[in-house]
Design a protein that fits this description.
This protein is mainly beta. The chain has helices at about 100-110, 110-115, 165-175, 210-215, and strands at about 5, 10-20, 35-40, 45-55, 60, 75-85, 90-95, 115-120, 125-130, 135, 140-150, 155, 185, 195, 200-205, 220-230, 230, 235, 245, 250, 255-265. Mean pLDDT is about 95; it is low at about 265-275.
Length: about 280
């Protein structure tokens, strides 16, 4: 196995995707691209990192808790907003505590939209979404998403699109209360900082070269340049691409301005913390 390099990509077409992807992404003619997934090297196979592009509303959905998931794992995820049209919104959790019966009824008649905590978002907003959190993403957004590598999603409401709903499965995992405020923050793009230090993965923003705190992370790492570029193995990794290395010290940050690093946890950790 190599010690690192550029990762391959996979375009995922979605009914809510964009036909005019923002720079630096190329837009295939006529295709509504909703996601770009990056390949996963074996040391990072439990993590999936991707870009999301929204032209329409995504479904109201929830990812299962591990104990209610057919693959035996949950799907915590987090988002960094990299592009947002004015007034772009997404929903995370409920505006107030609600009971499961009311949620199910609202999913059937569409009024669940009014129960959700919709918030305006802008570039550099960062949000952590634990498994079991009901959420929906609106149009006009580009996000970097880091998640547990579990593609199980339960839809509660899909705006009349002819796709299957999963109400029975969803009800087992739903967190029925408002989303914790401390799991959302504005990221300073000029400051290196730990965004997530959790039991499933860690996400670190690095501006320029890594400092001692970042260099202390051991093990395989995925890199997502946002501005500037990095080198790993024999490859240059530009914005819109991703690469990996066996250790952070194997990455050349000479031309890097701002990038995200994603690590698998190698030690026992507390629940996700956003400093």
């Amino acid at each position: 196995m190599t010690s690192g390099g550029l990762l391959g990509t996979r375009r995922i077409l979605k009914p809510w995707g964009r036909r005019d992807l923002p720079a630096p992404f190329a837009s295939p003619c006529g295709e509504a691209v909703g996601e770009i997934w990056f390949d996963r090297p074996p040391p990072l196979e439990d993590i999936l990192t991707k870009y999301l592009f929204t032209a329409e509303q995504l479904s109201v959905q929830v990812h299962p808790l591990a104990e209610h998931c057919p693959v035996g794992a949950g799907k915590d995820e987090c988002w960094l907003v990299t592009e947002a049209v004015p007034g772009a919104k997404l929903a995370i959790g409920f505006r107030e505590e609600v009971d499961r019966g009311a949620i199910r009824s609202a999913a059937l008649d569409g009024s669940i939209e009014d129960m959700l905590d919709w918030r305006s978002v802008a570039v550099d907003d960062f949000l952590y979404v634990p498994s079991g959190t009901v959420h929906a993403i609106g149009p006009g957004l580009t996000l970097v998403e880091v998640q547990q590598n579990n593609d199980v999603t339960f839809r509660l409401y899909d705006y009349g699109r002819p796709r299957e709903l999963h109400l029975d499965e969803a009800m087992q995992s739903i967190r029925t209360y408002p989303h914790p405020a401390e799991l959302c923050r504005k990221v300073d793009p000029a400051c290196s900082q730990v965004l997530v230090d959790g039991p499933h993965y860690s996400v670190v923003q690095v501006v320029g070269a890594p400092d001692a705190e970042v260099s202390a992370y051991r093990g395989a790492v995925q890199l997502i340049p946002l501005t500037g570029y990095c080198k790993t193995g024999n490859d240059i990794v530009d914005p819109g691409e991703s690469g990996w290395a066996r250790e952070v010290d194997d990455i050349d940050f000479t031309a890097s301005e701002r990038c995200l690093l994603v690590f698998s946890p190698l030690r026992p950790m507390s629940p996700p913390v956003l400093p």
